[in-house]
Sequence to fold (251 residues):
Amino acid sequence: MLTKRIIPCLDIKDGRTVKGVNFVDLRDAGDPVELARQYAEENADELVFLDISATEQKRKTLANLVLKVAAAIDIPFTVGGGISSVEDVEILLQNGADKVSINSAAVKNPALVNACAEQFGSQCVVIAIDAKQINGQWKVHLVGGKVPTEFDLFDWAKEVAERGAGEILFTSMDHDGTKEGFANQALARLSEEVNIPIIASGGAGKSSHFVDTFTHGKADAALAASIFHFGEISIPKLKQELKQQHLAIRI
Fold:
């Protein structure tokens, strides 16, 4: 049985870790290199690093900061933000990333998913999907959640899986930062409709939310930010509680 993964997320803006609610009202959460080192020491399974202003400001992900984070940790490391070409991916992988997360650029140019999977392998390609419910339908949003599209969450997930994506990182904008639990109904449907791992994001507030998303949501991994950054729950404690619920967890 594959173990369920716990993944802290570092949202980066201007070189600092930040966290907001529903993608707005950002507050400082600390130095990304120090947080990354702490999470690796606490036995996080992976780390996700998202430069949340890179696409919006039309600049590239902070490759030098990626290099520093990679040097500080010994766990798999995914980097996203402003990635729009095969060359961007190559630079990040050379600087120490194990995977890349692509969002807006994949919607604008779906062939980029194929190109990255063919050149670097599907295991390196994570497609991030930010979506919210509009009139009862999950619609994909771009540019840090600021630009709505007509893309349906489930149709888009199936397309990127067919194009060679290795994982999908689904963030529910409706749940982001609320600490009221993950979008488990949508997650369960995603896991049924695509045959690649699904990472749940948006809504983690307590240990039971992780239990719920691994059981009811059928997620393969769960990502969280503020509850880890601000010390509301530690990764070792969370993993012990998940183990007690008979979930397959790497302690």
About this structure: The radius of gyration is 16 Å. The mean pLDDT is 89. The chain has ten helices and twelve strands.
